[in-house]
């Protein structure tokens, strides 16, 4: 799960850094989508200029660096690593030269067998790859395609891809291009901007990125669609697969529940509203438990909308139980290692708020249960709470993700059968046959715990279950994991 962006001046050729600056602003706005690496490439009159490295957007791409990225168009990336590890060579954009020259960014993941197939195919053709990244392989496939046009190269390459991908790329001929997998698992949006610098066509992972630069959202890139933006501003849209073979779109539910900015719109609805509705539905499902609480508290920041809906439906006040140190960078879910250290640094319990109180803290999800036991321990030990409940506004995550989350094994997931078997051995004998939620509650150290049911989580979006990838919740993988 990464953040990608592209910009192309469409009112004539631009030789300044306007496109790169727009991309830099959009990447900075989407820093929450990835914190391991960042980079921008710009097309400058027949060549591609590129800057990328490990680090946050502001570290890798300060103003002075962006000013060197002259040309039009530009493309950029902020990385959340799911393959290849946290090494600079895995940073995007990936720059490849062959039949044509391209710089490419990618959000998503190809399934493992497909990446291996593509790499073997490129190796047989004598193409050297610098990293184990599936994204570099995709860039190389487009660059070395023997087809006559860029559009044909994109169609040929995407016809061989299996997995989740939203792609944005550029060529030295000032073309900006994009492609989205036929299932539409990862979002990709199209917008336009008119300002004192000119008119621009924009691409980004989320509509929120357009809000930050003052652009207007135009439409989503359709699942199975390819797009080329030419220097004169004309757009060529084309299908990556036939209408007969195009599957039903399956947007990743985790985008709605956690990853996307609350201000972003997905499937035509603001994410904040859908998250608040998930919290409200969790409260309705909790009514049978007859909770007697003093207040509801979000786990900041991503749990705020869910807690808002939960508190409203419960008729309970919502108050802060944690201080978030805003000078501390990092989403703990994104941290490649040391997640507990990130939690300790960014969240502090407020004893004056929780001492002798009965409270429910609301999480957007519990994936690895790295952070939640630490929070529970601090609420009791540091805060002196009387009673603690945990509401999780998502269904249990029980299966690995192969489409763009860093959860490739069941052992990483607290609600998987493998983890539950391990945890039961750590708990007293009475938990050996206890229901999964009760086992997880005991492990975390809360007095009460409830997950939102899968049916109600989906219902909160106003869309049918068939419109989403729910693989991490139910094991139904829309794209085969075996060749």
Helices, strands, pairings?
Blueprint: E1 3-9, H1 18-29, E2 37-44, E3 47-54, H2 57-60, H3 63-66, E4 74-79, E5 94-97, E6 101-107, H4 112-124, H5 134-144, H6 150-158, E7 166-170, E8 176-180, E9 189-195, E10 198-204, H7 208-213, E11 216-220, E12 225-229, E13 235-239, E14 251-252, H8 253-259, E15 265-266, E16 269-270, H9 271-285, E17 295-298, H10 304-314, E18 322-324, H11 339-346, E19 347-349, H12 351-354, E20 358-363, H13 372-381, E21 387-392, H14 417-426, H15 436-444, E22 448-451, H16 454-459, E23 468-469, H17 471-474
Parallel strand pairs: 14-23, 17-20, 20-21, 21-22
Antiparallel strand pairs: 1-4, 1-10, 2-3, 2-4, 5-6, 6-7, 7-8, 8-12, 9-10, 9-11, 12-13, 15-16, 18-19
Helix pairs in contact: 4-5, 5-6, 9-10, 14-15
How would you portray this structure in words?
With 483 residues, the chain is an alpha+beta fold. The chain has 2 domains: 247 residues, Glutamine Phosphoribosylpyrophosphate, subunit 1, domain 1 (4-Layer Sandwich), CATH 3.60.20.10; 203 residues, 3-Layer(aba) Sandwich (Rossmann fold), CATH 3.40.50.2020. Helices cover 30% and strands 23% of the residues. The longest helix is centred in the middle third of the chain and has 15 residues. The protein is globular.
What are the main properties of this structure?
Rossmann fold; 2 domains; alpha+beta; 17 helices; 483 residues; six-stranded antiparallel sheet; Glutamine Phosphoribosylpyrophosphate, subunit 1, domain 1
